Amino acid sequence: MKTIKTLILISSLAGTAAFAQPVNCPEGTTLRDSEGTVFYCVKPGEARLDTTPYVILHPNGKVYAKGQFANGKRDGRWEYFDEESRLTCVTNFKDDRFEGERIFFDKDGKTVIEEQNWQAGKREGNWVKTEKGERKVRKFKADRLVKD
Q: Which of these, 105, 148, 113, lies nearest to 132 by C-alpha position?
């Protein structure tokens, strides 16, 4: 069962619908499974994450989060899902800090309900939130609210 779950997760990271793909970690690394809920690749003899795809599961076995580590830190695009596999958030990271756009979705997994902008882990620029059909814009500069 773990093998099938691992194959599905690694295939989804690669962006393919094929479930029978072999598990391929980057050369020189091996797949780690942490209690059947977290999957990642590491170099032999190392416990820490270096540069690897990373997947976390909900208790029901569906993907909660998937993304990438670079030099042991979250990096690039990370996607988060609810227990029904609907997209809830897309977040970009650089050196384990929010970087760029962060988008939150309604329960349908498609409708954008909030857009945030970040620079080096600090709030920056326009943040747009839609509540009850009303669009609210807040502006941040160097992590401080300048317009509400």
A: 113
Tokens of 115: 């857009």
Contact between 87 and 65 under an 8 Å Cβ cutoff? The reply is no
- Percent of the chain, pLDDT > 70? 78
3-state SS, the chain, equals CHHHHHHHHHHHHCCCCCCCCCCCCCCCCEEEEECCCEEEEECCCCCCCCCEEEEEECCCCCEEEEEEEECCEEEEEEEEECCCCCEEEEEEEECCEEEEEEEEECCCCCCEEEEEEEECCEECEEEEEEECCEEEEEEEECCEEEEC
Which residue has better confidence, 82 or 27?
82
Digit-coded pLDDT (tens) for 61-110: 888 999 988 888 899 999 999 999 999 999 999 999 999 999 999 999 99
Euclidean distance between CA atoms 118 and 70, whole angstroms: 19
User: What token pair was written down for 84?
Assistant: 């029904």
Contact assessment for residue 66 and residue 53, using Cβ atoms and an 8 Å cutoff:
yes
Q: How far is CA 105 from the centre of its chain?
A: 14
pTM value is 0.74
